[in-house]
Queue: 2 jobs
Job 1
Amino acid sequence: MKLRSRSTSVDRGPTKREKYVIPRGVLDIDWQTLFTVAAHRHSGTDEQEALQRVQSLWGTSRATIICQSVRSGLDLLLESLNWRPGSQILMSAATIPQMARVVIEHGLVPVPIDVDRETLAPDLDQLRARITLESKAILIAHLFGSRLNLSELAGIAQLNKLSLWEDVAQGFAADRFPGDDHADVSLFSFGMIKAQTALGAAILRFRDPAVAQRCEEIQLQWPEQPPHHFRQRLWKAVVLKFLTWHPVYSLLIGTAASLGTDYDRLLSQSVRGFDATQLFVQLRRRPCRAMIDLLHNRLAHPARHWMEQKTKLAGRYDELLPVPVRVGSQASFPARWVLPIVSRDPQRLQIRLVRLGFDATRRASQLSVVAAPDDHPQWTATRTHTWLENLLFLPLHPALRDSHIRTIAETIHDIES
Ligand SMILES: Cc1ncc(COP(=O)(O)O)c(C=O)c1O
């Protein structure tokens, strides 16, 4: 495709505004499933049987457990291991802040490891240099739907007697990937904005069945997630799904603009699973029956259509976007569910795209950089910081057409050149 000639002027890019705003995305769950959940009457099987039905669908001979979220799962895992305070967990520097918060809650120290923007892999030299006698585990995140090859990391972990955990919260692709065999623990999320969402829930897969059993025993002592909390999430999902129908979304944005409301902040807050002020009270709950049944439904009837469509749209973006803005250009993606780019001026680009009718956002994934530990202030992750703070997520929505992607790409060429 021929793009417009590059220009230094912001005002010379495409100017025709879309009739409707194209929203940033849409929840990956259809109306029928939402209404089935709303009318949910559980099947009469007991909780253990319901859990086993989900576990059998995961297709692994390793032990698995089902939690309310990946954060709850990490909390359980650390509780079960009961490591000495001050022990260190080497983590991908780019993750959601509450993953590091869970580590700290257990008296442990998160140690950030830089993540490369092109490969989305951790810097292995830096990782080796930050291993100490206090190090206990490596927690690696597969970001934005990419999938890392863990073999080299497994070698480092083995050599240093560390556990290797993979955070696949952003990586479920309904492609029967049960977790990497190199990992001691794999953590998958089915949170609100994730692929094939179960409005929450997580699956953890363990190499060591004894660790799985300890986690299971601790979880059994936790109270059940109150069913009305799950129902609140359900109604939130119904509202969000309705709002992200593009004619309605256009109205929403228009109204928010006239009221001076920051809709971007409101939307990103509304998909957060837990209230930060009561985080550990909320994390330490077993998933309720409706959530387990919904997770079963999602795994038993994988709906890959939207995921495949998104992956195609992302492929088109990749063809048209200038190379310097791309994220994960050397990573492998079994599927795409978000499309981040790095901009020299993400705020200006966002404003420009929104004006044209494309709801780009800086808040889609809530990632931030893990801070250096107090006793090793030099262990920063400055390279990750450089690209993460300039991230902008482009829309991936069923209403997105090829002409839209071309307009977005032209605008980006204009601003970034
Ligand atoms: C990289 C990463 N890790 C962990 C999580 C937490 O997953 P959950 O919401 O299931 O706790 C997320 C959630 O977005 C994430 O993006």
Job 2
Amino acid sequence: MSLSRKCSNCRRWNTDHDYCVHCGAFLNHDSEIREKELVQIKRNLELNTDRMDKLIERLRQSDTFVGRLAYYVVRSMWYVAVIFLTFIYALIALIAG
Ligand SMILES: [Zn+2]
């Protein structure tokens, strides 16, 4: 049995769709909320990535010794983390056989 919904935007009937096939408006309120949350999460992720990239680039090109030192410390910590994770993955693979 199919579910029919009336679009609140254009007042036409639709069958089993989350979106109105006539005007594109949301018919399912849960889908609309999820879509808006997904867009917000993507926007926040892009914003945070941009901030981190800008901070790292600013540290790398810093005129002060402390700024450049902070860049190399962060970079070294990243390499240590990658080596540590590689070791853990290799250990898990070794144990699993
Ligand atoms: Zn519509």
